[in-house]
Amino acid sequence: MRYSIFFGIAFLVLNSYGQEKGTISHSFGSVPKTTDIVYPDSTWIRWDSPEDAGFDPKGLEKLRPFILNELHTTGLMVVVGGKVLYEYGDIEELSYIASCRKSVLAMLYGKYVDNGMIDLDLTLSALGIDDNLGLLPMEKQATVRDLISARSGVYHPASNGGDDTEYAPPRGSQQPGEYYLYNNWDFNAAGGIFEQLTGKNIYDAMEMDIALPIQMQDFDRSLQHKEGDPKKSRFLAYHFWLSTRDMARLGHLMLCRGKWKGTQLIPQWWVKQITSIVTPLEEMNPEHIRTWGRAYGYMWWRLIEETHVEAYKGAFAASGAYGQFITVLPELDMVIAHKTHAKYGRHTDGRKYRQLVNLIIDAHHPEPFGQTWDELIYQGKQERANGNFKKAGELIAKGAQQKGTDNFEHLYYAAIMYANAKEFDTSFELLEKCIDAGMYDWARWARNSRLKVLHPDPRWASLKKQMKTSEQAYVATLSHPGLRNELKRMWKRDQDLVGQWEAQKKVVAQNTMQLDKIIERYGWPTRGMVGKDGVWMAWAIAQHSHDLGFQKRCLELLKNTLDTDQPEPLLYAELHDRICRNTGQKQTYGQAIIEEKGNKRFYPIANETEVDARRKALGLPPLKVYANTNYVAY
User: Tens digits of per-residue pLDDT, 467-510?
Assistant: First the structure.
């Protein structure tokens, strides 16, 4: 009998490698934006009902009494998938957005960093920057990058208050780039440098680069002006006066990775860069703010929440005094714009506002489509088998969105389905999402025959550049980037010879020897060393090895990770079941799949009635979920 054996993430099917043990505090469903991104025109579109957006109306009913009793909200808009879900108060009133201005400046920087007009590594000295009291020689070595990350070490008085300079160390005590302090001098100087290097007034740039292209409804150029005391500092604060609904547009632009109706207003790589963590929670200063659940990027805050971990994955925000917030929750396709008008002399506490955000999250229904994410994947693959590629892509993309984490394999498969259906715009959108989710295997994309229809499109070359830029930023965070590159080359050699058995067999043997040397020198590679994909490539090389003794040694090393802060339970289960199969034993966790004449089934499982308990002990989903995602009848 001729048959093939598959392992869920071996070869091309990488289901959810790197899943960590533990439970998620909140489950989430799909928001129907995955395949069709909605942008407002001159006015916002509204959901016909909360249920259509995947929200419980009774949950949303809790918002108004909370706002009235706990907050001083003057305007609130909640947008999901580009449509208005909920609003409160006066969303048209123009008012001061306080320090949200800094996040707006970060958005403006992107275009000019990308075209080379702004060099983030220029020093204040090279730019000729000085101030009223004079800058110290050490301070003049701070770069533009240091300013926009609040790590300049420059503690010259700012022209306006509202920062943490009362906690500043003595001037000249901190080297540029080494110490975080939320300091208005940095941000105001960053505004001055923007105007110096671009030759544009900040407000004119805002109008032309963002406000007009995204059709901000209430933006008034004549109201925008700088404030501050020029006797304290020559760099004034570039304040903005915006409406709540226009703040929501800024948040939606960021959610859509800088793209608006097909035009890339802000480079996608820059959106990712400014919302990535530069200063982690444990390095925030002064120390008491480390309890606030916020890290810092480039003038955007990254949000950290212990009670709604899944919803806050990748979440970021602009934040300003009195209660001005633009909160972006990518996992829910959600933007929340909130204002408290300063003229009333009241403010909304940030921690109370966070409770409001959590109430909104709690109203999210886990299964708005009546199906779990894995059922959607299974149904999509059925449609694919029937030749309905567009429907297959739609269902699989919805399943991927509903799954939320570690979903780029499903997004990738959906992109292929849309390419087969000649729905090229959607296919490219999904491939961009794959890159955002951490997929950096261009060789795999290039050799996939089903994506060749995309190659003549100019966006294909742009994707390659985008992936390279994102991968470079990712690799810069690793302790052993060279080792990751070596693993990547090894795995590419293996995959380039698929279908050429004898040649591939020699490469597999060479890779086994090389990985053995790597392990002898470094131990089993960890995510901190080589990244999540680097760990996967090391596992894949071990999985392909024909040396059973070597596989068993790798299995023991993977087992040792289970009690660390970087566990690899899925990779452990995969290799464990591969070894069981190689030695003629029944598998333990159900990861091995046999295909016979186009039909898939599980390789025999020991004590099958207990398999879900064993999977749960490792933090793996039930076997039925795994079966659905791999199109196995079970």
Answer: 999 899 889 999 999 999 999 999 999 999 988 989 999 999 99
- Between strands 95-96 and 75-80, the pairing is unpaired
pTM over 0.90: no
Let me know: does 293 contact 327? Beta carbons within 8 Å: no
DSSP assignment, residue 610? G
Q: What is the mean pLDDT of the chain?
A: 90
| Burial (CB count <10 Å: 0-12, 13-18, 19+), residue 257 | buried
Percentage of the chain exceeding pLDDT 70: 93
Structure tokens at 616: 């749960």
* Residue with tokens 């949303």, as numbered in its chain: 60
- Across the range 62-88, mean pLDDT stands at 96
* Structure confidence at residue 366 (pLDDT): 54
Contacts of residues 429-436 at CB distance under 8 Å and 24 or more positions apart, as own/partner, are 429/35, 429/37, 430/35, 430/393, 430/397, 431/463, 432/257, 432/268, 432/463, 432/466, 433/408, 434/408, 435/463, 435/466, 435/467, 435/470, 436/257, 436/268, 436/272, 436/470
> Cβ–Cβ contacts within 10 Å for residue 277, how many?
16
> Is the separation of the CB atoms in 373 and 15 below 8 Å?
no
State the number of CA atoms in the 13 A half-sphere of 392 facing the CB: 24
Q: Which one-letter DSSP state was computed for residue 601?
A: E
**Positive or negative torsion for Cα 77, 273, 136, 225:** negative
Radius of gyration from C-alpha coordinates of the chain: 26
H helix intervals, 497-604: 501-522, 527-544, 548-561, 569-582
Confidence of residue 103 (pLDDT cuts 50, 70, 90): very high
Stretch 444-448: mean pLDDT: 91
CA distance 631 to 382: 8
- 3-class DSSP string for 253-321: HHHCCCEECCEECCCHHHHHHHCCCCECHHHCCCHHHHHCCEEECCCCEEECCCCCCCCCCCCEEEEEC
Q: At how many degrees (to 10) do helices 527-544 and 548-561 cross?
A: 150
Beta carbons of 454 and 464 less than 8 angstroms apart: no
Count of Cβ atoms closer than 10 Å to residue 472 Cβ = 12
Per-residue confidence (pLDDT) for residue 21, from 0 to 100: 27
Tell me the per-residue pLDDT of 396-418, one tens digit each, with 9 for 90 and over. 998 888 787 778 889 999 999 99
Amino acid at 530: V
Q: Report the C-alpha gap between 318 and 6 in whole angstroms.
A: 46
207 DSSP 8-state letter: I
Burial of 201 (0-12, 13-18, 19+ CB in 10 A): middle
Structure tokens at 143: 């770069």
Which residues partner with 468 through β-bridges?
Answer: none
